[in-house]
Amino acid sequence: MTLSSSSRRQAGVLLHLTSLPGEFGSGDLGSQAFSFLDWLERAGQTIWQILPLSPPACGGSPYTAFSAFAGNPLLISPEKLVREGLLQADDLSPGPVGWVERVDFENVGTWRRRLLRQAWRNFQAWPAAERQSLWDFGYQHAWWLDDVALFLALRDNLPDSDWTGWPEPFRHRDSHALWQAKEQFADDFGFHQFCQYLFFIQWGELREHARQRDIQILGDVPIFVAHNSSDVWARQDLFQLDSAGRPTVVAGVPPDYFSETGQRWGNPLYRWDRLEAEGYRWWIDRIRMTLECVDLLRVDHFRGFEAYWEIPAEAETAQTGQWIPGPGKPFFDALRSALGTLPIIAEDLGLITAGVERLRDDLGLPGMRVLQFAFADDSGTSCHWPHTWVRNCVAYTGTHDNDTARGWYEAEPGPAETPESWEAERRRARDYLASDGTTISQDLIRAVYASVADRCVIPLQDLLDLDTTARMNIPGVAEGNWGWRVREDQLSADLAHRLRHLVRTYAREGR
Fold first, then answer.
1. Active-site residue 300, yes or no?
2. Catalytic-role residue among 401, 417, 465, 488
3. Chain-wide mean pLDDT for the chain?
4. What's the pTM value of the predicted model, to 2 decimals?
5. One of 28, 41, 146, 300 is an active-site residue; which one?
6. In this predicted structure, which of 155-164, 390-399, 430-439 has the lowest mean pLDDT?
7. Is 276 a catalytic residue?
8. How far apart are CA 379 and CA 410, in angstroms?
9. Which of 347, 443, 454, 462 is catalytic?
10. Residue 98: its pLDDT value, please?
11. What is the residue extent of each domain of the chain?
């Protein structure tokens, strides 16, 4: 059963929306996003990889979200709201002024939420006929939107922002209490519906701009969801929780090349038996909703569908845990039966077993290959060495979880490395790439482009040859991630020309 295949060689760029240029403190769905698509077209790129579009629950991480179905309201463009008459130009001041190098998620979020509240008040004063499109949107999406809007409205009005601390009728979703809450908090409930309405309108406009340029959007679906989310609150029966709603076991991964103590993500784990009993309907709805927004879909932590690392909730690190079998091929069979052929890419990084590889290959899914990982292996047999790659994969210099190419090469030895092993790894890179290391980013990029992989995606930081200060995320580190931004002048005509030359040289036109 083949769920996804590529008959054309493609090249793309990895950049999240918050990293775009712009004058309002973070990237968004405004003019700079459209300009970036135009730049990608000039550079010959046919893929734009983004991170999840979900609303971050804390720290700016799109992998820890209030909802797996909702869009991030903080990506809504203020300039578009002015153009549409929902805001006045004066409403944007005072606020973030000019371009800033890193996103201050707390302050930018506060400012943008104030604008959205003002837009909501203005919208409510519009004639009923002009507000009809919101009610139509709410009716069409009520199956997920009502839970999200009510969850966020309750968070706005109850003293405990964690739903397990709410009064019992709200915590256990007493139908009468929820009906009363919709009435009592009607303004906040409507506001959160309004934000989703704006997000999906603006996202749809950007998606159409990408289609017109034959650029595919590669999105991202994390396998797990946040505990403090509308997803878990609304479907507590699908997760391993105690009677108070707290997780009994949580997700993560054991020690690996990212962390000596593993990564304790803290997400609640699914009751796969109950998901199976209802035909995996929740997951089918989630994938369908995501594919309405993107063209290709990277499924994060694919190995968790074969087996996942179960950590006792009371454990402080991920070192204590056990592998538990996942839903496996029957889960993907159910997706395919409901949704047809799926453009899925399996994020098969980490501790990958023969069983994970078998599942990926039985499904015909492309996996991921990361060139940075190759050079730690002195045998030349790791799946990340280009001479081992197959066509049906997506090749990277590094991902959003890696250091930049230059940062990786220039880094000091880590705690698990000796100076000798560190230098041996860099020497293997130089030998393999026929490089002296002075242009390591370019050398890694050229090797990925030249490879047999049908698709290659390069983080923009590597295309710009940036050092470790431009790193997007350090796995296992809670603070200081996700904030990097690109300057408008860095998206130059010269860089676009050089990328288009690579595309032509290695037949990655994607046509």
1. yes
2. 401
3. 95
4. 0.96
5. 300
6. 155-164
7. no
8. 23
9. 347
10. 62
11. 10-505
